[in-house]
Design goal:
alpha+beta, 12 helices, 10 strands, 16% strand
Length: 377
C-alpha cells in the first residue's frame, strides 16, 4: 500500500507555500489575470522566500528538493491561482542543465535562476509541430565554433521576458535522433519576439512566439550531446507531467472548496441549495474525483523521487488530473448558477485556467497513447 503521508519537512514546505499563496498570490490574482501583466512583484517575493528553483541543487543556490515538494508547491499555488503559478515558475530548462550541462553552464544557468538574476524559457513547440516534437524544423548549423539557428517557436511561456531560451534545434537528420538542446540568450542579434499570444487563461503568464533569424551562439551553449537533445528532454517528461497533474489538482481542490462554501450559504426555495440531494450528489462526485487525482499525482511524484521512472503512472496522473480539473471546475460553475459565470467568483477564472492542462506537456490523447503503449508492450 502506498503511504501518502508527508514527512515533517514536507509538511513544513506545504505550510510555507500555503501561506505564501494566501498572502501574496490570492490578493492579486484577479488583478493580474485581467490586466495580463506579469506579476514581477510576486516573483520577487517568491525569490525572497526561497521558493524559486526548488529543484535546483543546493550547490548551485537552489533548495535541492524532490518531486513531492515540487508537487506541493504547484498544488498549493495553483489553488490560489494557476496563472500566477505559471508566471513565477522561471526555471524552465534547468533540469536538463542539471543533468547534462557542463560545470560552466550550471554556474551560469542554475545559479542565475535560483538567485533571480535569470528568467528561463524552453523552446520546443513550433507552429507546425506541437505533439509531433520529433519533427521540429528549427535548425542549428555548425559554423566553426558557433551554431547558426533559424526557425520559429510558439506558445513559449516567458518568451518575451526570458533571458535565455533552451531551444530544441535540428542539428542532424530526420526524427528523434537529429535534435539538440542549445541555450540561446535572448539579447543575441537575430532573436526576435515575433508576437505575444493572448490566451484563454493564464493571462498573468507571458506567452509568445519567437523567431530565430541566423542567430549565432557559441558551440559551448550546446547542452549534453549533439543529436541527443530529444532523448535528454524525454528524460524529464515524467517530472513535467507530474508537475502538470499537481497544478490541475490545485485547481480542482479550489473549485471543490468554493462549491462547498457556496452551496452551504446560497438559499433557494427556503433552504440552502446544499440540502438538495442532487447538489449533494454532485459535491460527492467532485470530491471523489479530487481525491483520486490527489492519490495518482502524489504516488507518481513519490515514485519519481525513488528513481522508478513511472512513465505509465505519470501519464495517468496527468491525464486524470487534467480531466478532473476541467470537470470539477465546470461543476463548480454550475452549482454557482449565474454567479459562476461572472468574474466576481474565482471559479470562472479557474475554469479558464483548467483547459490548458489537457493540452500542455502532451495532450490527453497523447497520454492515452503512452498509457496504452505501456500496458500493451
Amino acid at each position: 500500500m502506498v503511504d501518502f503521508s508527508l514527512t515533517e519537512e514536507q509538511r513544513a514546505v506545504r505550510d510555507t507555500v500555503r501561506e505564501f499563496a494566501r498572502e501574496e498570490v490570492e490578493p492579486v490574482a484577479r488583478e493580474h489575470e485581467e490586466s495580463g501583466e506579469w506579476p514581477e512583484e510576486v516573483w520577487e517575493k517568491a525569490i525572497e522566500a526561497d521558493l524559486v528553483g526548488l529543484g535546483i541543487p543546493e550547490e548551485f543556490g537552489g533548495a535541492g528538493m524532490g518531486q513531492v515538494e515540487a508537487a506541493i508547491f504547484a498544488d498549493e499555488v495553483a489553488y490560489a491561482d494557476a496563472g500566477i503559478l505559471a508566471a513565477i515558475g522561471t526555471s524552465f530548462g534547468t533540469r536538463m542543465v542539471t543533468e547534462y550541462g557542463t560545470r560552466e553552464q550550471k554556474e551560469w544557468i542554475l545559479e542565475g535562476v535560483a538567485s533571480g538574476d535569470l528568467v528561463g524559457a524552453l523552446g520546443n513547440t513550433e507552429p507546425e509541430h506541437g505533439s509531433d516534437a520529433a519533427n521540429i524544423e528549427t535548425t542549428a548549423e555548425r559554423d566553426g565554433d558557433e551554431y547558426v539557428i533559424d526557425g520559429v517557436k510558439t506558445f513559449i511561456t516567458h518568451g518575451s521576458i526570458a533571458d535565455y531560451v533552451l531551444t530544441m534545434c535540428r542539428t542532424g537528420g530526420e526524427g528523434h535522433g537529429g535534435i539538440s538542446a542549445i541555450i540561446v540568450e535572448t539579447d543575441r542579434e537575430g532573436f526576435e519576439v515575433e508576437r505575444e499570444i493572448e490566451t484563454m487563461g493564464w493571462n498573468a503568464s507571458d506567452t509568445a512566439q519567437l523567431r530565430y533569424d541566423r542567430v549565432r551562439v557559441p558551440a559551448e551553449n550546446l547542452v549534453g550531446q549533439e543529436n541527443r537533445g530529444f532523448y535528454q528532454l524525454m528524460e524529464f517528461f515524467e517530472e513535467e507531467r507530474v508537475g502538470i497533474a499537481a497544478q490541475a489538482l490545485g485547481i480542482a481542490r479550489r473549485c471543490l472548496d468554493e462549491a462547498k462554501e457556496y452551496v452551504g450559504e446560497r438559499e433557494q426555495f427556503g433552504q440552502t441549495i446544499g440540502e438538495f440531494q442532487a447538489v449533494q450528489h454532485t459535491i460527492a462526485e467532485m470530491a471523489v474525483k479530487v481525491e483520486n487525482a490527489k492519490r495518482l499525482t502524489y504516488d507518481a511524484a513519490a515514485r519519481v523521487d525513488r528513481d522508478e521512472k513511472p512513465t505509465k503512472l505519470a501519464s495517468m496522473a496527468k491525464l486524470y488530473a487534467s480531466e478532473v480539473a476541467e470537470e470539477v471546475a465546470s461543476d463548480a460553475i454550475q452549482l454557482h448558477g449565474g454567479n459562476g459565470y461572472t468574474r466576481e467568483y474565482p471559479v470562472e477564472r479557474q475554469y479558464r485556467h483548467a483547459k490548458i492542462y489537457q493540452i500542455g506537456e502532451g495532450t490527453s490523447e497523447i497520454q492515452k497513447n503512452i498509457i496504452a503503449g505501456e500496458l500493451l508492450d
